[in-house]
Amino acid sequence: CQWGPFSLENFAATMSYACISLVLLLFSPVKPEVNEEVRYPEQEIHNAATLVENKLTEEADSAFGDRFDEELVIHPLQSGDAYANFLFRTRWDLDLLQPGSKVSHYRLFPKSLGQVISKYAVRELHLSFTQGFWRTQAWGEPFLQAPAGAELWVWFDETNNDIDRSWKELTNVLSGIFCASLNFVDSTNTVSPTASFKPLGIVNVTDHKFLRHAVLPREIACTENLTPWKKLLPCGSKAGLATLLKAERLFYTSYHSQAVHIRPICKDSDCLSTSWELTQSLSVVLDVHTSGQGKKEWSLFKMFSRTVTEACPLATRSTIYVDITNNDQENEILLTPTPVGQTEATVHGSKRTYAVYDLFQPQLYSASRSVNVILKWKQRQELCECCRIWCEQC
Description:
This protein is α+β, with helices and mostly antiparallel strands. It contains 9 helices and 14 strands. The protein has an 11-stranded mixed sheet with strand order 5-6-4-3-7-8-2-1-10-13-12, with helices on one face. A 3-stranded antiparallel sheet has the order 9-14-11. The protein is globular, with a radius of gyration of 31 Å.
């Protein structure tokens, strides 16, 4: 019924199709059942190629020496507030400015910034977004200074033949990467300083015609600038110190500044080859809770509403430094958990002492699954005795 009215032609075509199907079924080889333990030559070749590819990748990483370090420095200010400075440093052992150099593999260094350096022949790039003003008299000197709003200054390589065009295109590209209004940078707010903004990396270009500087003081730093900034990190905000960067806490502070600095550095002590260094810094001044003695006591959870659960797996170093320079018998500081060591450094001409927390040390996670550094001031015995006598008299 499906074939329509019966006819000799339809019947003959049907029988021919049935005979051909029967012949193919009888003479075709029987396909064996596939066993999971059976390994075919094609599969062995694919696995061997995968192992070789992974080995070459590991050898390339060790040869290039890519490196990522992260650290957090907490410094009690003179006003009693806490100054937290996050520093993420990525090193890329590759010279992008060599003629004919092409890069297709990015392991730790963000690809978006690598393409910007290569396309526009950028020698140095410094970009910052700042909210609030740094109060030098109350807080002292900052680690990194930045004006309010957005600031961008770039050193171009001497191989760049059209600086003005590259500057205009670069500001538009950075505007898209960081979700900022850098596209409003034009000839009216662009200058080429001659006595400041010297190169911070390897100095091979000192002619200030290759320098461009612009400031947008009305640019407001907000969450849409922080999100792409965190995505440039190798681990993003999923692991490491970047997990503390909660927008709700960072932007409700007395001071907030985030920056990106790219510069060429020496690859080794002989400085025969060049590497690239990307430094991402974020500085905040937090008004921490006040203890009963009029001294500021804080913890990571009180400041950022989060704790550190693990170090970034791609990081070579992951460290928290707490400034304990003022720790003496009169003002004894108690830190929990116990730091793994101490170190000294000279900051702005003064010698400082820091307690060190290495996030790769397993003993930091022995008490709990996360690290919550807590600072408290130890009460002196004389004060406790006076309080006891006063309470007995009452």
